[in-house]
Amino acid sequence: MEGRRMQILALFSFMLITLPAIHGWGTDGHSIVCRIAQSRLSEAAADAVKQLLPKFAEDDLGSVCSWADQVKFRYRWSSALHFLNTPDTCTYQYQRDCKDEEGEKGRCVAGAINNYTSQLLSYNSSASKAEYNLTEALLFLSHFMGDIHQPLHVGFASDKGGNTIDVHWYTRKEVLHHVWDSNIIETAEERFYDSNVDAMIDAIQQNITTEWVDQVKRWETCSLNKTACPDMYDMHLKVSKRPVIGHIKVPQKGQYLKMTIFSPDYQLLTGG
Ligand SMILES: *[C@@H]1O[C@H](CO)[C@@H](O)[C@H](O)[C@H]1NC(C)=O
Ligand SMILES: *[C@@H]1O[C@H](CO)[C@@H](O)[C@H](O)[C@H]1NC(C)=O
Ligand SMILES: *[C@@H]1O[C@H](CO)[C@@H](O)[C@H](O)[C@H]1NC(C)=O
Ligand SMILES: *[C@@H]1O[C@H](CO)[C@@H](O)[C@H](O)[C@H]1NC(C)=O
Ligand SMILES: *[C@@H]1O[C@H](CO)[C@@H](O)[C@H](O)[C@H]1NC(C)=O
Ligand SMILES: [Zn+2]
């Protein structure tokens, strides 16, 4: 175990020294979540998504799943909707924790998932069309479903979701938050999939039909009469706080992704 870890560590140090700097992968996590989600939609939901996607997306939800990050500044009000923090406890309570910096209730990633899910549920009612921009609702919802599964987007208030924790990711200096946002995925792509994102998505989807098949039902279930079930995703708090000792341990292959793919269930669109 230890030997293998050292081996991988050595391999990585080698790769990082010999390969040119890699950049622009920050959107991969979101795009992977959305591509898996889109492939699992019911027929009615797939139709609705097609109708709602902007033209330039060319029917590919994955291509616009970082839109919500791009509009953070244009829509300043939306920046609070990407995360939530607990008062440094590993238990999360919607009533207590879902608020923005001004303390306004419901303004957090879980509240936003509820918000945009209910907007999308009115897809077929003509009244809603005037009231909301459902294209935006779709782009927000599919992005926030990714965010809530990033352990440090449901993190501790005192360290701003790991943004104040400096670590080394192999030879690079990063903040812990960024390691979870990008580095783990990047490294997995390079190390296990020859930088082929499609191969990585295929591998995850393989597991949905084999290793994790028993869990899938649970991911898809949201109890009757509930608009959405963002609170069930807080389970990832359990793994979000690891001791930081200079180097982060080599992630278990697939661990982050296991949590990421926990999200995409667009039964939401059809009210499931
Ligand atoms: C919207 O209504 C149409 C026509 O009744 C139906 O075919 C479609 O499945 C509905 N879409 C959703 C997402 O409910
Ligand atoms: C709900 O959606 C509307 C329309 O985008 C937005 O103005 C509002 O801030 C959102 N609230 C939350 C909590 O997501
Ligand atoms: C809905 O939002 C999208 C993305 O911001 C925008 O391109 C589109 O023009 C909006 N539609 C309407 C009817 O305002
Ligand atoms: C759902 O809501 C309806 C109306 O409020 C209620 O009659 C029904 O019992 C609820 N079902 C469940 C499973 O809670
Ligand atoms: C698939 O599941 C196996 C067993 O849990 C795990 O070892 C592997 O890393 C998983 N693959 C992916 C792509 O997550
Ligand atoms: Zn985000």
TrEMBL record:
One of the GO BP terms on file: DNA catabolic process
Reactions it catalyzes: Endonucleolytic cleavage to 5'-phosphomononucleotide and 5'-phosphooligonucleotide end-products
Enzyme Commission number(s): 3.1.30.1
Keyword terms of this UniProt record: Disulfide bond, Endonuclease, Glycoprotein, Hydrolase, Metal-binding, Nuclease, Signal
GO molecular function: metal ion binding; nucleic acid binding; RNA endonuclease activity; single-stranded DNA endodeoxyribonuclease activity
Pfam families assigned to the protein according to its UniProt record, in alphabetical order: S1-P1_nuclease
SUPFAM superfamilies tied to this protein: Phospholipase C/P1 nuclease
Cleaved signal peptide residues: 1-24
Catalytic EC class: hydrolase
Similarity remark: Belongs to the nuclease type I family.
Self-association and partners: Monomer.
Listed name of the protein: Aspergillus nuclease S1
